[in-house]
Amino acid sequence: MRDAARAAFAALTELHAAGWIHGDMQAENVIISRGPAFIDYDRARRPDLTPPATPYRGGLIHVIAPEIAAQLLATGDDDHVPLTPAAEVYALGASLYWAWTGVRITDYRGDPAGAHTELYADISAGRRRNITTDRPWVDPALEALITTATTTSPENRQSNATV
Fold it and tell me: Are 58 and 68 in contact (CB under 8 A)?
C-alpha cells in the first residue's frame, strides 16, 4: 500500500505540474495496476480558466480539505470555491486514510442528508481521527505520508513520493 500511495501522489504531482486540477479526488477515482491512473475527469480543469458553469462546492465530503470546508461555510450555495492542488493532496491523503483504516478521517456529525454544517465546521477546525488508533498495522512511512498530506496547513502538505 505504501508504494501504491507514493505512486498515486507522484501521479497527482505530475497532473498539477501540467497545470490541471482533477476536481474529484477520492479513493474510487484512483486505480493502481501497473501504475496509478485517475478516472472520472468530469470536474477536471485548468485553474487559470474561467470558473465552471456549475460552481464547485466541494467533492466527497469526507475528503474535503480544511480550507475548502471553511470556504464552504463562509460562502453561499451558488458561490464557486476554487479548488487548489494543496486541497487535492489533502483529498488523496484522506482517501488513503479511509482505504487503509476503513474509517473516515473526520467523524460524521449532523444529518447525512443535510447541509453538513457541523461536519464542515469539524473539518475546518482540524478535528480528525488519530491514525495510530485507526491503523490496521504499523507502517511508519505510510503513516507519515498520509499525515503529511492531511495536515491542516495547506502550505505544509507534502505530495512528493519521497516520504
Answer: yes
Is the pTM above the cut of 0.85?
no
Lowest mean pLDDT among 36-45, 74-83, 154-163: 36-45
120 grid coordinates: 464542515
pLDDT in tens, 16-69: 888 888 787 777 767 666 666 565 555 565 666 666 667 777 777 889 999 999
Q: What whole-number distance in Å separates Cα of residue 47 and Cα of residue 74?
A: 21
The distance from CA 98 to its chain's CA centroid, rounded to whole angstroms, is: 11
Return the pLDDT at 57: 74
How far is the C-alpha of 161 from the C-alpha of 96, rounded, in Å? Answer: 14
